[in-house]
């Protein structure tokens, strides 16, 4: 297994303490110098470096970052390596906004929609990314959706399921990218999340679901996003990352 660490939340460099990886785990750290100016130009530079690292790494790849947008770079890298992966997207949120529908302006809320072909000018065109067909995407555990996201998903072919209800048979055929935003875990169990959403599954349930997918042998990239603040005790975070990576 190749481990790639992207110590960024969007274009902000994160301290190592925010990504408490298992001690002694060898990893490739992607930390390019980003250009000044426009956020999307900076993100494109970061994502280009990530895509190159993913394309060069042997399957399967595990990637850990502080942001869901890095999944777009992972998808581009897998495509460059000759894969045509489908997506299984674990997230408490939909991440299917566009620049036109977002009210918060938070770029991470566009991540899945960008992979589906939304606003291609901001990242996909710069990375040479091919959009994933809606019917090849499964959204897992989403429970905090804005009205435009509800409307989009209701009219789309993206499939939705709960974490406990996900079986390996629910995954689209072919190679898979499994994206896990750790805010899919119930906020009461994982304090300090940037965007906590109550009513989620326990961490053990998320780990079990990811392991069911990995047991198929079809997961070419496991992408783990850690969008959280500093906390005094990060032992629960470290244990969760170890369980997912191991």
TrEMBL record:
The lineage of its organism: Bacteria, Bacillati, Actinomycetota, Actinomycetes, Micromonosporales. GO terms for molecular function: arginase activity; manganese ion binding. GO terms for cellular component: cytosol. It comes from Pseudosporangium ferrugineum. CDD domains: Arginase-like_1. PANTHER family: ARGINASE (PTHR43782). The keyword Ribosomal protein does not apply. Signal peptide: none annotated. The keyword Transmembrane helix does not apply. This is Arginase. It comes from the Bacteria. Keywords: Hydrolase, Manganese, Metal-binding. Belongs to the arginase family.
């Amino acid at each position: 297994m190749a481990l790639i660490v992207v110590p960024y939340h969007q274009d902000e460099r994160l301290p190592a303490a925010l990504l408490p990886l298992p001690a002694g785990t060898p990893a490739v750290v992607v930390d390019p110098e980003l250009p000044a100016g426009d956020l999307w130009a900076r993100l494109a530079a970061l994502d280009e470096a990530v895509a190159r690292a993913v394309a060069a790494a042997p399957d399967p790849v595990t990637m850990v970052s502080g942001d869901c947008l890095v999944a777009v770079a992972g998808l581009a890298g897998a495509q460059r390596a000759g894969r045509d992966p489908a997506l299984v997207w674990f997230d408490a949120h939909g991440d299917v906004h566009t620049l036109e529908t977002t009210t918060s302006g938070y770029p991470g809320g566009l991540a899945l929609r960008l992979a589906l072909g939304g606003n291609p000018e901001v990242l996909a065109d710069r990375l040479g990314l091919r959009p994933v067909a809606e019917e090849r995407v499964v959204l897992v555990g989403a429970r905090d959706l804005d009205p435009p996201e509800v409307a989009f998903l209701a009219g789309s072919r993206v499939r939705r399921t709960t974490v406990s209800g996900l079986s390996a048979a629910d995954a689209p055929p072919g190679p898979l990218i499994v994206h896990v935003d750790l805010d899919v875990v119930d906020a009461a169990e994982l304090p300090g999340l940037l965007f906590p959403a109550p009513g989620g599954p326990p961490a053990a349930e998320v780990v079990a679901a990811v392991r069911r997918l990995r047991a198929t042998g079809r997961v070419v990239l496991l992408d783990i996003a850690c969008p959280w603040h500093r906390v005094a005790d990060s032992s629960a975070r470290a244990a969760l990352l170890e369980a997912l990576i191991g």
